[in-house]
Amino acid sequence: MLTSTLHEPSSVYATRTVSASAPREFPGLRQIVREVETAWGLRETTEVVRALNARMPALIERYRPQLPGWANGVDTHAASYRRIELHHCPLHGFQILAMVWGPGQGTPVHDHRDQWGIESVWQGELDVVDFAVKGSAGDLVRLEPSNVSRLSTGRSLGFTPEQGLHLCRNPSHRNATISLHIYARALDAFNQYVDIGDGWYERREYVPSQQHSQ
Ligand SMILES: [Fe+2]
């Protein structure tokens, strides 16, 4: 199953980003922003990630009942998963995104440019597959899957700058997934790793397309 996902054509991974110029209120967004600002004061990255990750299940439980009203305005049958920017902090620079994953949709292996993140599931399930670097030669990197986390609704996963090499996918063949992602900096460019066989991947910079309307 993992292998078939990795070999899907790259067009599957084209994403659409809806920028903050088309504001979208996500359930509990203001409270979530306050929580990130509070955790930011802990300064030490591991503590920030631990504190936010610990808070997410309660935030999801509290605000998830409002999610259907938001989800009604989102196309869950789009050709690719969608990234919807909800907030970009002008002071600290952190970014909050909603992502909408149709059945079976996912990302290639990617990194997070050495920043921390929190990925939380508000509807459906999300698989997060971690990879470990086993070798490199220029832009070629040998990778091995090291861990698979299946996040069900209400769960979240935090990663430190050292841990953010992974792929995400919606494991369901029928249902959409909605997830909320918090990143220390705006993830407007990052590296994708294209499977070239025998465990080797080619690192390529990727810039998600920006569209300024719904
Ligand atoms: Fe990611």
TrEMBL record:
InterPro entries assigned: CDO_1 (IPR010300), RmlC-like_jellyroll (IPR014710), RmlC_Cupin_sf (IPR011051)
GO MF terms held by the record: ferrous iron binding; oxidoreductase activity, acting on single donors with incorporation of molecular oxygen, incorporation of two atoms of oxygen
Transmembrane parts of this sequence: none
Superkingdom of the source species: Bacteria
UniProt xrefs under CDD domains: cupin_CDO
Pfam families on file: CDO_I (PF05995)
Protein name, per record: Cysteine dioxygenase family protein
Biological classification of the source: Bacteria, Pseudomonadati, Pseudomonadota, Gammaproteobacteria, Lysobacterales
